[in-house]
Give the backbone structure.
Amino acid sequence: MLRLRRDGLRVVLDSGEPRGPGRGAYLCAKMICWEAARRRRALGRALRVSRESIDHQALAEEVEGMISGSPAPKVSAITPPA
């Protein structure tokens, strides 16, 4: 289960331990659950925010490696300076 929380007007992944402050919602880590929540607008209702304030694409990209059924993460071609 992944926890999302409302941070002011934004919705962010709560990856901290212990849980971060703010209203939260849990969602299973399967792409089908993300799609169903987006389609039903469940996150907006659970977090009490407007649907325009949730960037579903950005959230899905942020947790791409954690969601089963999602494409493999992209490898960055940028190398850090030596």
Residues 72-82 have pLDDT under 50 and may be disordered. The first strand starts at residue 2 and ends at 7. The beta strands are 2-7, 10-13, 24-27. Residues 2-62 form one domain.
